[in-house]
Model the fold of this input.
Amino acid sequence: MPTIRTSSISRRTLLTAAAGGGLAMAAGATATLVTATPARAAQHLWTWCYQCSQLWFSGNGSGYCPVGSGIFGWDHGHQSSGSGDYVLRYDTDPGVGDSHWRWCRDCAALWSKGWSDSGRTTSYCPNSSQPLRWHNWSGSGTYKIEALPDGINGPGGQRLWFLCIRCSGLFFTGNASDGTCPAGGAHRHWKSPEPQIGYEYVLRQL
Ligand SMILES: [Zn+2]
Ligand SMILES: [Zn+2]
Ligand SMILES: [Zn+2]
Done:
């Protein structure tokens, strides 16, 4: 299972000094301290599934795992046991990274719409009713993920997360098994020939 390393997500506070309402009020004007919540905070509840090894969002049901569980193998919810609580930033949050990631409404996995749109990867959703099995980005934010080697915001975090060129998902390779791809068989990353950049990612936990 992924090892846990923590990192603090700084919450910005907004300091606003109220301006006086004109010369007549200048003498009595007071500065007002306002603490505002960030416009869009980074989002947690992203979870590693030990069955498929993908990152998925656990805040909205259990999604659809390509691996069935239960007595008859009919339960297709992703699993959260053994996972940390990963935090993803939105593309509007500060910091560098690859900004083309979306949540899939049909399977709950994180997937790269950008790479799939460019034709470098194939989108394959295990719970799609469409013939081409595209992941469904309806209702999703756009997420920004730190990418090796240059798109990194600092030390720490967890490496060994890769873009799968077969399903466009993000999967963890730090265990004996790389999981199961919705497209069948194992996920496949794109690290050959070396050095290949832009396909290994770094995640941080809450
Ligand atoms: Zn799964
Ligand atoms: Zn999907
Ligand atoms: Zn895959």
